[in-house]
Amino acid sequence: SAEGEGGDIPIEKRPGFLHAIKLPLVSVLPRKLKSTKEPDVEEGGGSTPSKPAGLASMETLDDSNGSTKISDDKNDEGLETVKLDSSIEEKAALDAERSPDEKKIWDRNALMARLAPLKEFKYIIAGVSIFLIMLIIIVVVAITGPRHMVASPIIDGRFVWAVTSCGHVEGILEDGAVVFRGIPYARSPTGDRRWRKPEPFLLETCWNNTLKAHNSTDTCWQVYGNGTINGNEDCLTLDIITPQVRYSNPLPVIVLFGAESLTGGSPGNLELPPPRLSRIRDVVFVRPNFRIGVLGYLAAKALTNSSYPHTSGNYGLLDAVQALRWVKENIVHFAGDPKAVTVLGHRAGATMLTAIVASHKVEDLFTQAWLSSGSAIFPGVPLVESEQQSQDQYIRKLNCNERDDACLRRLDVEELIDNVPESWLKVEHDLPQDVENTEQKHQWLVQDGVIVKEHLSEVWKRGNLSVKVVIGTTAHADATKALYNSRPEWTEEEVRAKVANSMLGYNLTEEVFKRYNATWSGLASIVSDIRTVCPLLYLARQIPSTPFYVVTEPRGKSRVADVNTDVDAILEHDVPRTPEQRRFFIAIQQIFYRFVSLGKFDHHHSDASNNKILLIGQDPLIHPDYPNCDLWIANDYVPRYARVD
């Protein structure tokens, strides 16, 4: 602005940051290209030469038509008022006269003019921009970045704590993994709780402080194969092996159920594996104890009347179900995934799981089952008939009234076990004999109307199972040590005599030795095919899309694939001693742990939809059928003489 006639134009202070941002907004109207004429500045009739445009001198605000007027008037703050006399129409006309190139130059110059005052703040703007970008990156990484494993701390170099629904437990660090032993999953089934379904813990019945889960507790009372009796009635506990106690990246869970029979021999060869296997395979192992024998399966009228719902028997099955419920609720605290639980059953454990899989009470407790060398004969006797058999053959010897459940619950455990009939303890591992046609076999599993509501074969045939199932066995599952040691040496003559003196000797001797060798391994195959292999294959083919495998790799002094060959390799209870055994170990472990992790039964080899069989030796081989089963099925030996737990 002019400071009077011919006066100097004062220079204002440089604008601040906010004014520098606002300044370009003054020129919201398009500028005109500079005129060739000198603009006239009206100030009292005089004129002054044009001066460079500045913040104080606005002479060139519109320097294209010389019509800019600057008023002497000042506002309240002492600032001069700028009046723009140019009309919008004139500006539009001049814009129309410009060429496209001139317009581009003008637009670029206008933009640069507006941004020029911001240049001195470019470092501040750049710093703020970088800070905002880094902040966004940090937030995104924190939300979507990799989750870190936060493991429970190790106390005193060897102890690790975990939490359960009933309180804290303390495990031990062993071989790079954490082992918890003897964690209760239900209240002690003693006193009035004997012969009742397992009772979960309530808050008032839980333990105080931290439970030292360092040592395994006793197994449940049982009768072993050699006749010895051992166990404890307070036995409903479980053991756990986990690579770490953490909550991130939960791992697949394997729950082990093993027993030689439903009367004893638990857990058999399904003891917990070496702790390092949990770390190597990235899985969590769980092994629960469960009631077996007379304390686990007695059906009696007195017990039925004193229970609600009114039923009895199958307490061992209910123990297994309760253990699986505990796993579902608590295994997340041990780095396990409750939605990825595989149950592995062996021998009588597989028989139990066969019944449980068919029960609707276990939906969502596990996702898949691997059943090894179980029984193919299932309960067909109603509860009432089983109760009567128990009364006639057992309870009368105890001197208890038929309806006196309190008397049964008061009796000493040893007395209860000592009075079990010998026929109830017998499991056949030999060639069929004539006496089997006259003896009534005792079936521990009963149709109790609660967990076993109908004959299991009917459930299997419908095929509407809620879990994936794999069934398998070994080629010589019934080649027991007792049978092997029953002769000093199994010569050809001894083998032929053994077959001739059995039921096979009536009309099948010649046909048998056309198919089998007259050797120890041949005899082991005959017994196993009749008792276990062919009955299980017969069962598997009643269930749509159920894979079936047979382990054929021999081992040990007897050179047969005995009943434990598959599970010993899976759980590394044995070590390979030859290159051939090492290849077998690798093959079956790959198949099993692939099933555990992915739910797939080695699709490269198995075609369950076509009822093919996977023979697992040094290498898995697919086969359309198992040799010689047709002989036993056609002659009514299978499933008639199948092994019964």
TrEMBL record:
Gene3D superfamilies to which the protein is assigned, alphabetical: alpha/beta hydrolase (3.40.50.1820)
Record's keyword terms, sorted: Glycoprotein, Membrane, Transmembrane, Transmembrane helix
Domain of life of the organism encoding this protein: Eukaryota
Statement: the UniProt record of this protein carries the keyword Acetylation: no
Sequence intervals crossing the membrane: 121-143
Protein name: Carboxylesterase type B domain-containing protein
Feature: compositional bias, Basic and acidic residues: 70-82
Organism: Graphocephala atropunctata
